[in-house]
Amino acid sequence: MTMGRSVSVLNAPIWSATPTLAQVDAAFPKNEIGKADEAHLVMRCRIGHDGGLKSCDPGAAAPNRFSFKNAAFNLIKLFRLDVAAYPHEPYWDDLVDVPITFIAPGKPATNHITDPIWTRTVDYTKVLALYPAQAANAGVKTGRAIVDCIADHAGQVTDCQVSAENPPGLGFGAAAVRIANAMALNPWTPQGIPVDGDHIRLPVVQHLATDPSPSDVATKP
Fold first, then answer.
1. E strands of the chain, at which residues?
2. How many Å separate Cα 214 from the centre of its chain?
3. Residue 220 in this model has a pLDDT that exceeds 80
4. pLDDT (mean) for 2-11
5. What percent of the chain has pLDDT over 90?
6. Are 33 and 77 in the same domain?
7. Which domain holds residue 197?
8. C-alpha pair distances (Å), 94 with each of 53, 57, 61, 77, 85
């Protein structure tokens, strides 16, 4: 423990490294295949100076069997806190709770991103700079588009496709793709599953205005 300060539990940790979806799938205990479709537990760990995790204590697994706790111990070595996200906070030796969900091979995944934790968004000035010239020249002051994207393992938003734009044909879809591609989300979900390969439905609203609005970029899928 660091002398001179109390230890707290870090809420909503931002990760620079987490297990991949393939690693989580491979960690499902072979002896549990056919016995459990899914398991969940929360590991409470201390944070090292380098962002790695140590002195981890598994909570009760559901189902509460040693094989899932052992699998979680193997995965926890792959987590690393994004220390750059905490430049003014002495995070080391604080505690962090890490949820981990195991899904049996062949069972449908339940890791659809419904409430992403964004680690990088696009500020108003950049959104305004990307306002479509076609729309501005036509006197259109507001436009909206919806893009369907895929998150990669690092939390980058990729492979965005326009599913709707209003008004159509004025460039709002292309602008929304550029905005979405500049965003990133935390690579590990609160449900305990990596984000890689999951789909995100992202609405983007643009205004040709001088007053910033928090609704210019919607960050709910």
1. 9-10, 15-17, 38-47, 53-58, 80-81, 95-103, 118-120, 142-151, 157-166, 184-185, 199-207
2. 20
3. no
4. 72
5. 73
6. yes
7. 118-207
8. 10, 14, 23, 17, 15
